[in-house]
Amino acid sequence: MILFKDIVTGDGIFTDAYKYKLVDDLYYHINAKFVKDSDDGNYDIGGNPSEEESAEALETTVTTGIDVCLQNRLVDSTMTKAQYKKHIKTFSQNLVKTAAESDPARADFLKKNLPKAVQSFLENFDDYSLFVGESFGEGAVVVFCKYPENCVLGCNIDVYVWKDAIEPEKF
């Protein structure tokens, strides 16, 4: 199994358990699903109920969301478009700087192509929900998720992550 981790915070962003593809050598498009995750609180399977109370009530917690986000503990962000513009400016500069240290050709590629990709996300910014890793780290990657209209359980969700902001780690 491969876990793709944020290079800044080390937070897990997604795994190879999901179908994903690299788009324009800039970002990953992950095929996710809108799911319901329930925790019935029954941790003592096989245990007998106490004699004092034969029918102990179990608390059930139900959460709906994007499977990639739920399973990697990504947190919904309230970042506005203006805040994201500020974030992505610094973030992009750091990506190019990091790439330049090990691969100058990659840095040149990012300088040339990253602004166009960023602009395409900004043009449709209101169509996306943004998520960040559970540590809320400064300078961390922001994950874009696009719900279809009339989203119901089981529907496909498009998730996008910048390629150079994550690193694969094999388990």
Would you give an account of this structure?
This protein has 171 residues and is of the alpha+beta class. It contains three helices and ten strands; from the N terminus they run βββββαβααββββ. The strands form two sheets. Strands 3, 4, 5, 6, 7, 8 and 9 form a seven-stranded antiparallel β-sheet that branches. A three-stranded antiparallel β-sheet has the order 2-1-10. β1 (2-6) and β2 form a beta hairpin. α2 runs antiparallel to α3 (104-123). It is globular and about 55 Å long. The chain starts with a strand and ends with a strand.
Order of helices and strands: EEEEEHEHHEEEE
Shape annotation: globular
> In angstroms, what is the radius of gyration?
20 Å
Structural class designation:
alpha+beta
What does the largest sheet look like? 7 strands, antiparallel
Percent of residues in helices: 25-40%
**Number of helical regions:** 3
First-last Cα distance: 5 Å
Strand content: 25-35%
Low-confidence stretches are none
Mean pLDDT: 88
* Number of E-type strands: 10
